[in-house]
Design goal:
Helix content is about 15%, strand content about 45%. With about 400 residues, the chain is mostly beta strands. The strands form five sheets. The chain has an eight-stranded antiparallel β-sheet with strand order 15-16-17-18-25-22-21-20, with helices on one face. Strands 4-3-7-1-26 form a five-stranded antiparallel β-sheet.
């Protein structure tokens, strides 16, 4: 009975102000379907239209007004802050369509399915890995650096299953090492997928570097990591790198990595700091291994690689970069990589998307991958439109 009274009290308080009579309208301006996308709604805008307080933000539930099905949602702090300033909604929008979103505020919010996941892996020398239902990635920490294995590139794990694989990959790999059974290695495809992507000293799938004289000047392994959000529909973390020398200039980097549900692409915001007022050329890169082919389907906006895994039986791994025109990137093939180069002052960030696919999953051909990357660029250039309307 106490629960019922609380529910009625909150509901009536919102309805009494007319707040829950407001409907959010999401519009896809593209003549192409947006299969799954996380849309960011300013939280203050939501609170004002629903006439509720910030203290009730955690009680918001979103629903498709037509089907009455719940829309996956998450509160998120965009400025690396614990205090949320965005309401995230995971939606599908057919070409040239609109979706009406209604809201309820309830005392008890049912748990949602978690569609993203990430963690550090101290059992594997400070690896840091993250994934959604489509893709998985990792970077390397100080414990691995101490063994002499130094890389700040981004690794790719190929998978064909929607369930998370990070924990199971590490568990079976450790068991394989303990029992001297190579069949348990995560370098062997057990039906879920495998690690057959070679990072080594390369930038892997979206790592960064100072670009000077046609060469990449790179950091060592990450030194610190902080998770900002871990689901249900957005994973986000910040990693930092110790200072290193770039042609006599000491530089440092902080990198914010965000992976949403439903996408192959990480959104990466990188910020380099260094002395002096001049600009430096900074690059995001994807490795071009022997036998691979690199393309630049949209000048300055896309770099694409149809790559060769370490095991020929593992098919093909596709990797790519996408940058909005506002980032003023230039694309170039250099130093064994397909690169996007950004000219920036100290402390001035650059933002891009970096991601991968697998020929044994949902990217069977280079053409499929390039079409996917082109769609990602279109979605950046033509974001979902947001408006509000009384019911």
């Amino acid at each position: 009975m106490r629960f019922a009274r609380a529910f009625i009290a909150i509901g009536l308080a919102a309805v009494a102000t007319g707040g829950l009579g407001q409907t959010l309208i999401l519009t896809n301006p593209l003549a192409t379907d947006r299969a799954q996308e996380v849309v960011e709604i300013p939280l203050m805008q939501v609170l004002e239209h629903l006439h509720i307080s910030a203290g009730q933000a955690g009680s918001i539930q979103a629903f498709d007004a037509a089907t009455k099905e719940r829309i996956p949602e998450q509160l998120f702090g965009s400025d690396n802050a614990a205090t949320p300033d965005l309401l995230l909604l995971l939606v599908q929008l057919p070409a040239k369509s609109t979706k009406r979103i209604s809201f309820r505020v309830e005392a008890s919010v049912p748990q949602q399915e978690t569609l993203v996941f990430g963690r550090d892996a101290p059992e594997r020398k400070d690896d840091f890995a993250w994934e959604n239902q489509q893709v998985a990635y990792r970077i390397y920490g100080p414990a691995l650096e101490a063994t002499g294995e130094i890389t700040s590139g981004i690794d790719v794990w190929s998978k064909r299953v929607p369930n998370f694989v990070i924990d199971s990959f590490y568990k079976r790999d450790a068991e394989g090492a303990r029992t001297h059974n190579p069949a348990l290695s995560y370098h062997v495809d057990n039906g879920q997928g495998l690690d057959s992507y070679y990072v080594g000293p390369t930038r892997g799938c979206g790592g960064t570097a100072v670009f000077s004289g046609g060469k990449l000047i790179v950091s060592k392994n990450y030194t610190t990591m902080r998770i900002l959000a871990n689901g249900p529909i957005r994973f986000s973390a910040v990693v930092a790198y110790a200072p290193w020398d770039a042609n006599g200039v000491s530089v440092t980097e902080s990198k914010k990595i965000t992976l949403d549900a439903g996408t192959h692409m990480n959104k990466i915001e990188s910020t380099y700091t260094f002395q002096g007022g001049s600009t430096v050329e900074l690059a995001a890169g994807i490795a071009v291994h022997e036998g691979a082919s690199a393309e630049f389907p949209v000048e300055g906006g896309i770099a694409s690689v149809w790559d060769t895994p370490q095991l020929a039986s593992a098919g093909k791994i596709s990797t790519g970069l996408v940058a909005d025109p506002s980032q003023h990137a230039k694309t170039v093939a250099a130093a064994g990589h397909a690169l996007m180069v950004f000219t920036r002052h100290s402390g001035e960030p650059f933002t891009y998307l970096a991601g991968s696919g697998w020929s044994k999953a949902d990217m069977p051909s280079a053409g499929d991958w390039n079409a996917y990357l082109k769609l990602q660029l279109k979605m950046l250039e033509h974001p979902v439109r947001i408006s509000w309307k009384n019911r």
